[in-house]
Amino acid sequence: MSETDKFTEDILQSAREKAENIIREARTETQRASDEAKVTISREAEGIVRNARADAEAVRRREVSEARHRTKLREQQEKDKIMQDVLDRVKKRTAQIVGDEAKYIPLLIRLIEKGLQELGEKSALIHLNKLDLKRIPTSLEGEIGRSVGHIKVEWSKEPIDATGGAVISNLDGKIRIVNTLDQRFEALEPKLLIEARASLFGE
């Protein structure tokens, strides 16, 4: 082998070694980059999975909460319907009492007498609904008078808008005692609802 050939072979050998080193380093770098990418991708994937699970759990909890709220709302609406039915039945019973004079007239007298006592005036004007104005006998004045003493009673010719009972006022109408069945029912309604809820729903 001539000197030239040997020189050329040395240069080629050196070039091959450098090339092999470059390729080896490139492969090592590529492998390292690939491993780092896998780790990064794995971490990102785990993060995405965690976030997805957290989002799914949040959605599940929200849906459960909304379902419970809807159920509770429907339950409350049904309870309200039942309570309204109870109130309607009580009102119906009240109307039935008004239709039974044997029961209603003594009750009306008591309501009027109580109103006269609360008013505390020597003269009073009694207001009744249209039906009572027609059917109340004149002798009712005497029955009322025996209980409340010497109070001059006048009967208003203008009917009131009420199921039954009376409004008792002084003659100029500035002081009014409302003793109607509607007012009594309205006053008793909260207590009635509490007792009915306790009895029906254990609340």
Keywords:
hypothetical protein PF0899 fold, 5 helices, rod-shaped, alpha+beta, 2 domains, 9% strand
Characterise this structure:
With 203 residues, the protein is an alpha+beta fold. The protein has 2 domains: 1-99; 101-201, hypothetical protein PF0899 fold, CATH 3.30.2320. Helices cover 75% and strands 9% of the residues. It contains 5 helices and 4 strands. A 4-stranded mixed beta sheet has the order 2-1-3-4. A hairpin with a 6-residue loop joins β3 (165-169) and β4 (176-180). α1 crosses α5 and α2 crosses α4. 12% of the residues are buried.
Give the biggest beta sheet.
4 strands, mixed
Task: Give the helix/strand class.
Answer: alpha+beta
CATH topology of the largest domain: hypothetical protein PF0899 fold
Q: In CATH, what is the class of the largest domain? A: Alpha Beta
Largest sheet: spatial strand order = 2-1-3-4
Question: Which of globular, elongated, flat, extended, rod-shaped describes the shape?
Answer: rod-shaped
What is the annotated CATH architecture of the largest domain?
2-Layer Sandwich
The percentage helix is over 70%
Beta-strand proportion: 5-15%
User: Poorly predicted ranges (pLDDT <50, ≥5 residues)?
Assistant: none
Compute the number of helices: 5
